[in-house]
Amino acid sequence: MLHALSFAFIDSVNVLLIGVLVALAIMAAPGQYRRISPLLLLGDWLGVLVLALIVLLAFDGLQSIVDAVISSPLFGILLILTALLTAVLTWRGGDSSDLVDRILTPLRSPSPLTVLVGFILGVIQSATSVPFYAGLAVLSASDVDTLHRYLGLLLYATAALSLPLLAGLALVVVRARPHSWIGRLFARARTNRDQVTRWAGWLVTVLLLVIGIAQILS
User: Fold this and answer.
1) How far is 14 from 190, CA to CA, in rounded Å?
2) DSSP states of 198-215 as a string?
3) In angstroms, rounded to a whole number, what is the distance separating the alpha carbons of residues 159 and 149?
4) How far is the C-alpha of 190 from the C-alpha of 211, rounded, in Å?
5) pLDDT tens across 40-60, in order?
């Protein structure tokens, strides 16, 4: 289970969602951020959880194939190839500010739509993340019994949202104390957004390389 969760933690390096939370903290009226951000994070968590359930059901249905891939060097090779692709995309860079602005449009006030936007973000984030699938493949191939494996999806979805959740909590402090050390840290990160995005990409690259090489050598 811990091995599977390591991929969920890599998946939590979600620059887009953190960027939306930062922008929301800047634009939201006093008191509104604390009402909107939990709904957004709840929706994202539900999106990750629902997709994780669907994917795990699919992997369990392909048990023999999943077991063969996980126990072979092919799994490590796939992780290394993903790391290389992540490195290329990180090197090329990109600006997501327009996308963040479009996402913020329906988040002006707390509503069921806020949860829906978060749900869609969670599904898209997970559906386009190789670490998300890798962690579920490891979970499917583990010796954890069926009941605890599926209950473990609650923890898996939470781990996949851990970094945005911490960022969301930190932003509550930033709004209350903008001149604190954490407020200055977020201000610096916002000013150097492209550089922070690159650091996040390189971090994911290194983590995938380490796990991939370890998988091949094991």
Assistant:
1) 15
2) HHHHHHHHHHHHHHHHHH
3) 15
4) 30
5) 999 999 999 999 999 999 998
Q: What is the pLDDT of the chain when averaged over all its residues?
A: 82
Higher local confidence (pLDDT), 14 or 153: 153
Distances (CA, A) of 85 to 53, 78, 94, 128, 193: 26, 11, 15, 13, 21
Helix (H) and strand (E) counts in the chain: 12, 0
* Number of separate domains in the chain: 1
CA distance 172 to 169: 5
For residue 210, is it within any domain?
no
Q: What is the pTM of this model?
A: 0.82
DSSP 130-191: HHHHHHHHHHHHSS--HHHHHHHHHHHHHHHTHHHHHHHHHHHHHHH-TTSHHHHHHHHHHH
CA–CA separation, 201 and 34 (whole Å): 29
- How far is it, in rounded angstroms, from Cα 206 to Cα 83? 7
Q: Are 4 and 150 in contact (CB under 8 A)?
A: no
Q: Is residue 81 part of a domain?
A: no
Q: Are 44 and 164 in contact (CB under 8 A)?
A: yes
Residue 125 belongs to what domain range? 2-73+93-192
3-class DSSP assignment, residue 88: helix
Amino acid at 114: T
Residue 186, in any domain of the structure: yes
Residue pair 129/200 in contact by the 8 Å Cβ criterion: no
